[in-house]
């Protein structure tokens, strides 16, 4: 105790295991992941580790230094290979644009780093396969960050399905809709799926609901897909016309190994939709409905409700201690926000690293990320051929 009655905190008594983080990328997702790591120690009553933000890397020195300072990174660098090979780093977090997911993740795995990679795993199917294969060979922990698995309502839905509350699953229908490209005269620089990596809408956001289908329903065996590019030319800010090959809207019918069928729809031209994701699952004994714009609720219908005349959808507020993935400092009824999907995801990965637990089935491993890429390839090929295709034609065993 000092002269004024204040006690010094003795950090040497901390039971936290420190895990050193190397972040590649200072943009939107790099900042989201950094924020999530910072929140881990006080979001859980017994966090598995204390993430140490050791170093962040990016190409623009001014921007990466600013991000490092704001989030409290100890160091920054401009060469991703320094980060991927640094022996001090335990977890390499790849939050680069889609076309930079492959090589840095491979090099990090070769240097013994546990690797988190933003989705999609890669823009190329063969690269995604090599990433999954390298993860299997090195036996390190990898996670493709499909963060929506880690929203409490989604995890609650997963539990209900596993418990058999819905009975036999019949149908799954999902959509992920945005409006960025709805205006034909919008400059291409402002249409994310057509500019930069030109990932397309199916790869960019449709991948999320493909992973959701895998997570909640199971293996997809066949697809019938249709993709559309409405605005095949867009002007840039200088007035130059640019060809657009990226898909703007994609719809697919899915067939599952367990006999269920489904539909997925992803769009970048849904006027009025900012970031709308929703899905519904119908079973022989009940149904569940999720809406990302109301992410703390899960609508649940059960035929077991008695008497029959009061059967109906219950709008369950998934914020009680009995529900999954609760934050210790939030009392019952206090909502979690979008960013907490990443907080839970990264805490799960820390747990897997520190306690040598498998990332699957709750998290998406690189193998899961590859399976999503296989479905994307199948949907694209189905659209090109104008017919139904089987998934096994495009994927390989890992």
UniProtKB/TrEMBL annotation:
The Gfo/Idh/MocA-like oxidoreductase C-terminal domain is annotated at 159-391
Every Gfo/Idh/MocA-like oxidoreductase N-terminal domain range? 19-141
What's one Pfam family here?
Answer: GFO_IDH_MocA_C
This entry's Gene Ontology molecular function terms read: nucleotide binding; oxidoreductase activity
Keywords linked to the UniProt accession: Oxidoreductase
E.C. number(s) listed in UniProt: 1.1.1.370
Q: Which domain of life is it from?
A: Bacteria
| PANTHER family named among the record's database cross-references | BCDNA.GH03377
Official protein name in the record: Scyllo-inositol 2-dehydrogenase (NAD(+))
Whose protein is this, by species?
A: Atribacter laminatus
Which gene carries the instructions for this protein? Answer: iolX_3
């Amino acid at each position: 105790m000092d002269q004024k009655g204040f006690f010094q905190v003795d950090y040497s008594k901390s039971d936290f295991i420190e895990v050193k983080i190397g972040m590649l990328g200072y943009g939107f997702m790099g900042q989201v992941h950094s924020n999530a790591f910072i929140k881990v120690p006080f979001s859980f009553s017994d966090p598995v580790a204390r993430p140490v933000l050791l170093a962040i890397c990016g190409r623009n020195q001014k921007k990466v230094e600013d991000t490092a300072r704001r989030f409290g990174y100890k160091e920054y660098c401009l060469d991703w290979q320094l980060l991927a090979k640094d022996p001090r780093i335990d977890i390499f977090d790849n939050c680069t644009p889609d076309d930079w997911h492959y090589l840095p993740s491979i090099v990090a795995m070769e240097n013994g780093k546990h690797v988190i990679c933003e989705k999609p795993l890669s823009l190329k199917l063969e690269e995604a396969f090599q990433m999954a294969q390298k993860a299997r060979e090195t036996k390190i922990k990898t996670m493709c960050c499909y963060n929506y698995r880690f929203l409490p309502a989604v995890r609650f839905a997963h539990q209900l399905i596993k418990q058999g509350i819905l009975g036999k699953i019949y149908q799954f229908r999902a959509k992920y809709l945005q409006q960025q490209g709805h205006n034909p005269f919008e400059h291409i620089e402002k249409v994310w799926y057509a500019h930069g990596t030109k990932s397309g809408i199916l790869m960019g956001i449709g991948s999320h609901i493909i992973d959701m289908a895998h997570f909640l329903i199971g293996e997809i065996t066949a697809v019938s897909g249709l993709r559309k590019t409405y605005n095949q030319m867009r002007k840039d800010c200088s007035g130059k016309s640019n060809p657009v090959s990226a898909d703007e809207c994609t719809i697919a019918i899915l067939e599952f190994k367990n006999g269920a069928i489904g539909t997925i729809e992803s769009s970048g031209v849904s006027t009025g939709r900012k970031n709308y994701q929703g899905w519904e699952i119908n079973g022989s004994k009940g149904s569940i409905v999720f809406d990302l714009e109301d992410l703390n609720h899960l609508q649940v219908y059960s035929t077991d409700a008695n008497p029959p005349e009061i059967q109906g959808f219950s709008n369950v507020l998934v914020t009680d201690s009995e529900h999954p993935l609760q934050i210790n400092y939030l009392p019952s009824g206090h909502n979690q926000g979008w960013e907490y999907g990443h907080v839970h995801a990264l805490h799960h990965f820390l747990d897997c690293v520190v306690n040598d637990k498998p990332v699957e089935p709750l998290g998406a491993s690189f193998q899961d990320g590859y399976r999503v890429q296989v479905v994307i390839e199948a949907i694209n090929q189905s659209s090109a051929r104008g017919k139904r295709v089987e998934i096994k034609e495009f994927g390989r065993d890992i």
